[in-house]
Amino acid sequence: CETHDPAGHPGWAAPTFTPIHRAGYCAFYGECGRNPEVNISLVSSKVPCLSNTPARVATGPLLALLRTVCPELARGSAETTRVCCSLAQLSALQLSVALSGTVLSRCPACARNFANLYCNNICSPDQSLFTNVTRVINRTTAQGTPQLAVVEYQCFYRQYFADDSFASCRGVRLPATGGYAIDTMCGRYGARLCTTQRWLDFQGDKNNGLAPLQIDFQLVPNGTQPGDAVVPLGGTAWRCNQALSAQEQPCSCQDCPHFLLGNANGALVLCGLLFGHLALVFVVSLLCQCWRAKKKKGTAPQPAPAPAAGCSARLGDASHRVLARAFRRWGTLVAGHPVTVLAVVAVLAGGLSAGLVTLRLTTDPVELWSAPGSRARQEKAFYDRHFGPFFRTNQVIVTAPGRPSSGYESVVLGAKNFSGVLSEEVLRALLELQERLAATTAWAPVAGREVTLSDVCYAPLNPTQPGLADCCVNSVTQYFQNNGTRLAMTATQTDGKKTGTVDWHDHLIYCVNSPLSFKDITALELSCMAEYGGPVFPYIAFGGYPGKRWYTEAEALIVTYSLNNFPRDDPRHEWVLSWERRFLEVVGDFQRAHGPNLSVAFMAERSLEDEINRTTGEDIPVFAISYLVVFAYIALALGEYTAWRRVLVESKVTLALGGIAVVLGAVFASMGFLALLGLPSSLVILEVVPFLVLAVGADNIFIFVQEYQQSQREPGETREQHVGRVLARVAPSMLLCSLSEVICFFLGALSSMPAVRTFALTAAVAIAFDFLLQMSGFVALLALDARRQEVRRLGGRRGVARGFGGSPHWGAAGWQVLLFLFLACAGLYFTLQVPVGLDQELAMPKDSYMLEYFAALNQYLAVGVPTYFVTTGGYNFSSPAGINSICSSAGCATDSLTHTIQYATRFPNVSYLAIPATSWVDDFLDWLNPTSRCCRIHRFGNLTGEFCPSTSSDPSCLGGQCLNATRRPTVEEFERFLPWFLHDHPTLQCAKGGLGAYDTAVSMDANGTILASRFMAYQSPLRTSQEYTAALRAARDLAEEITTTLRRVPGTPPDFRVFPYTVTYVYYEQYLTVVAEGVITLALCLVPTFVVSFLLLGMDLRSSVATLLTIAMILLDTVGAMTLWDVPYNAVALINLVAAVGISVEFVSHITCAFAHSTKPDRVERAAEATVNMGSKVVAGVAMTNLPGIVVLAFAKAQLIQIFFFRLNFIITLVGLAHGLIFLPVLLSYIGKTPLSPPGDGALSPKCPPGGRWQPPAVPYQESAQEGVLHRPL
Predict the structure, then answer these.
(1) Where does this polypeptide localize (predicted)?
(2) pLDDT tens digits, 537-558
(3) What is the pLDDT of residue 263?
(4) Which DSSP symbol is given to 720?
């Protein structure tokens, strides 16, 4: 019975058994025997007795032992020290603490904190304050006294106290494994995913082998109270870098790796110090500036000559004039021939877009995220070449929630508990499902035929002509060979003096313990082997069982179909896809039919890709609406309205649609152009690139159109010349942004990830085409629209120029800089905390059946996917030294391949391996053993010298053992007998035959030389991308260790190696390098931003640095916000961050360019003018173009779109807008370049005089507007 208080603290049971919560009172005391609910315990511990009474005085031996085990509780004298534990309880606690001390004693602070938790739980005199007993059982002593034994209680801790205790132990190493001690103390999570709550939950789990009862740890948030007089346990925990006394040492740096500065988080302290340093530098600079200003104000003003421009400034100004002159002449030319220009543009864009017919969309995740030259791809190619592709998995997980368990008394095998799902009714339902799947057919439309299970199934014992009975299907009903008659069999069994009936229960109990048996020991005499002839290992057919010997208590039954994995260009690939589609339909019907009684979760190999494609198709309308909203906004926002009666004249619908057509034309032309070059695309590119180009293209459109609207035509100036003059004013800024973005994305294409590289190339070409089309097609459209508006104008006034706000309040500028510096440092700190990875659940829509399957997979599966340790060519398996370095039987090396893997499985939280590797070498040696019937040779007759199967009773086989003694085979014997072993069918007479188990595990050439071999182990069940990445790293480390050992075998070449392989490695390898690659990619993107700005802004170093600094701060704040909004970092996020650089350039560069070319006399006025003139254009062209479309994406079904497109792009837009319109102008007002000469100066000559100083010209330089040259009055 759980309740929750209004404050929202963790729920806890009503205090039925602990009515008094008061200092000095116990919740339990003394021992009440063993817990009948705990079957396995490494220590003989007893549960306490319920006793909500005052604490007892500790005297004599109890007090002496208390000072040794729990010194923090023995602070007083013999008369004042009170406890809630007896001497027997404290002695048991001493033993338990000693066990933990064996792995924690390296770090005294950790060991003491861990002991203190249990000391307080068991012996604290204030035990009732933080303890609440929730379940008891009745017990009677030997004297007949009734007692209440506590079997479950709640323990309330303050969050900070538990966190500090956990933090002191998290880094303690375990030298025997090379891992962490916490690996053995956090259950299935291991050190990497262990948290305070998970750590304590494992300590309180009665099934962990140490806890005598169930403890429910409740962590109460700091500052809140659970209520009902419960006071959570708090206090001060020892830090790992803190010595317990003057005579003791703190934990070593190896065991206390946390980056701490004093008591604080080191990263947080450094980020705080960085902010303090930057703030101090800024404030001191301001004070110095104010001091100089006051000093200057107190003196009489002296006229000073204007500082002359240097050589770089003159060259920069000259280059700007050249660009302006070129764009002016180009604009005048295009505006004079708009129809011709539009026709040429349409033909070129349409021709390039026609390349879309050759476009290839990449949907294979391997091709998207794994580089062709990566280690994982090369290892996958090696594996596929020698052993064939990894088989396809189709799986069903069945549970029976609410169905009660039952006990069974076996005549032969004793008493066992059977879970609710292990009932005959459920087994027959599973049998019915498998019979229907065996009988079902699927239509393959391309092949034009019906496909059966036998056409596509993996049949290890009959791969050439498999029948339905040969298909590899692993399930609990396979212990009965999927035969309902055998499931119903009963027999009378006598065992000694006991006689009873045996049925399926007895056979199942036997088979889960002896899965390789061809006949059980009951009167049923049934085989445990599956119908296809292979074994069914219980860890594959059962899930959710408490331990290896308790399979009958499993909570889930698992049915696994293994299908052949044909290449995509193989016609049979369509067969297997068709049958999997039918599989999903049949299992879906089964789920609906049995929904009231059973919980059914399922998946097919095609499910992941199907669900992604489904949700993509369903979200296409969302993207369409998003683009329509953006288009509608652009169409309305471009207009300049003065009266309702002039809406049709003044609206810019045609111009807006033309601008949108230019953007879409650039996207289609770029994709078509790259498709003609053979570059594939992907759905991510189709979703991101249009948004990016819209942001860039719309911004330029707004700048151009609004500048034209605000510009007055000069006397005697034609419409075409007017368009050219406006283009000359805005095009350099547009060129600066576009060129920076194009170079940025081309550098981003250096990434090794195919999806990132393809995106960067597509974006670079699309932005380049967009700029070219705007300089031609859109200029022509603007000229036509100007002509239309002049023709239809009926009078009225010109539009009023629209600026962005007024002059900012520069008095608050200092605080604004400090605020943004603080945000940057905070963003840096949170960037260091951003999670790396992408859990597969996020790729699924919220209504996907795969989410139910993933939940069942994570909850019930006891083992993960098979992991193969593959040996490359060159190793001499036939030599005695070579054999001994591989095998694990008598006479084998202790550091052999199989011994090393087996040892690693003892520490699954470190190695992520659950089941040791199968070894064809060991079974081959057993097969050769002369005491068996396995390896025999015909001694006479027509088959003399040929292999004699174990099932043959031919007299010529008698005494024909391959070896005459138990020994290692010679090289000749090894090469002769190995092919016989690999093709020998396992039988009752010889279960060691290698067909099915090992015939595909050894790859040999025509001469019998071993080219490659594999040894199959099983991973632990992995649940998150962090676990998959850690498993890959651990497997590679283990393989490197094995490689080093095997290279020491005589004759082994130096290029020989062992590598791990499983189907998931190609997906998760990217996370080993994605952080470093992301940093490099983003750094490369920032380089051209600075270089192009420096060159096009007249070599203005200060403005270029301001641009670079602002974009870098935008990235820092964006990644920091990802941490706060649960957006993990991965390749999809990296694509959006690369796009963020391009969008940030739009927010920043236009204002920087306007500042650089402003003619105002001081920095503040120049920054104000740049903000007023460019602010509205940036808001309208970038922010408001993005935001409406981004908000629509929040309604997408796909979680991937919601997280990585809505959340991330929303962050990018808001952060970029704030930095571009608030921080950047203020920064420029402080560090921007002051004009070196007043506005009245003449033109600058590109030639520098001696000394690099500029000399004013003798004659002012003027040209008329009609001649198309800049006019700068003296």
Answers:
(1) Endomembrane system
(2) 999 999 988 876 789 999 999 9
(3) 59
(4) H
Instruction: Compute, in degrees rounded to 10, the torsion defined by CA atoms 1262, 1268, 1272, 1274.
Output: 20
- Both 396 and 482 in one domain: the answer is yes
Percent of the chain with pLDDT over 70: 89
| Residue tagged 């239309």 (tokens) | 788
pLDDT greater than 90 at residue 683: no
CB 993 within 8 A of CB 986: yes
Question: What is d(CA 903, CA 905) in angstroms, rounded to the nearest whole number?
Answer: 5
**Co-location of 380 and 401 in the same domain:** no
Q: Which of 998, 1093, 261, 224 is nearest to 740 (CA)?
A: 1093
Determine, yes or no, domain membership for 240: no
How far is Cα 440 from Cα 841, in angstroms, rounded to an integer?
30
Residue 759 in contact with residue 1138, Cβ under 8 Å? yes
Q: What is the CB-side half-sphere exposure of residue 651 using CA atoms within 13 A?
A: 13
Q: Token match 């953007």: residue?
A: 663
Question: What phi and psi values does residue 1165 have, to the nearest 5 degrees?
Answer: -65, -35
823: tokens are 């945000």
Give CA separation, 821 vs 812, 814, 826, 1113, 1151, in Å.
Answer: 15, 11, 9, 8, 20
Q: Which of 339-348, 983-992, 1116-1125 has the weakest average pLDDT?
A: 983-992
Which residue's structure tokens are 């283009």? Answer: 727
Q: Do 134 and 215 reside in the same domain of the chain?
A: yes
Q: What is each CA distance from 182 to 101, 159, 167, 186, 202, in whole angstroms? A: 12, 19, 11, 6, 11
Residues 330 and 403 in one domain: no
**Mean pLDDT rounded to a whole number for the chain:** 84
Q: Which domain holds residue 446?
A: 391-611
Stronger pLDDT, 575 or 907, i.e. the higher one: 575
Domain membership flag for residue 846: no
**Domain limit, last residue, from 562, 590, 611:** 611
Neighbours of 249 (CB within 10 A): 9
- The residue with tokens 């340093």 is 277
3-state SS record for 804-852: CCCCCCHHHHHHHHHHHHHHHHHHHHHHCCCCECCCHHHHCECCCHHHH
Residues 181, 174: contact at Cβ < 8 Å? Answer: yes
Cβ proximity of 692 and 726 under 8 Å = no
Tell whether 711 is covered by a domain.
yes
Higher-scoring residue by pLDDT: 12, 681: 681
Q: Is residue 745 within 8 Å of 674, Cβ to Cβ?
A: no
Q: Are residues 993 and 1015 in the same domain?
A: yes
Q: Is the dihedral of CA 122, 128, 129, 131 positive or negative?
A: positive
Instruction: Round to whole Å and give the CA distance between 767 and 1142.
Output: 10
Decide if 1104 is inside a domain. no
Give mean pLDDT, residues 173-192: 70
Q: Which pLDDT band holds residue 1195 (cuts at 50, 70, 90)?
A: confident
Q: Do 346 and 456 sit in the same domain of this protein?
A: no
- pLDDT (0 to 100) of residue 40: 59
Nearest-angstrom CA–CA distance, 780 and 338: 4
Question: Which residue's structure tokens are 């007993």?
Answer: 133
Give the separation between CA 843 and CA 432, rounded to whole angstroms.
Answer: 33
CB distance 1007 to 1014 below 8 Å: no
How many Å separate Cα 902 from the centre of its chain? 29
Alpha helices in 241-310 (DSSP H): 266-297
Closest CA to 510 of 416, 397, 407, 419: 416
The residues near 449 (Cβ < 8 Å, ≥ 6 apart) are 443
- Whether residues 358 and 475 fall in one domain: no
What is the number of structural domains in the chain? 4
- In sign, the C-alpha dihedral spanning 1011, 1016, 1017, 1018 is positive
- What is the identity of the amino acid at 444? A
Pair (481, 514) in one structural domain: yes
Is the pLDDT assigned to residue 669 strictly greater than 50?
Answer: yes
Structural domain ending residue among the three candidates 186, 220, 254: 220
Mean pLDDT, residues 1155-1165 taken together: 84
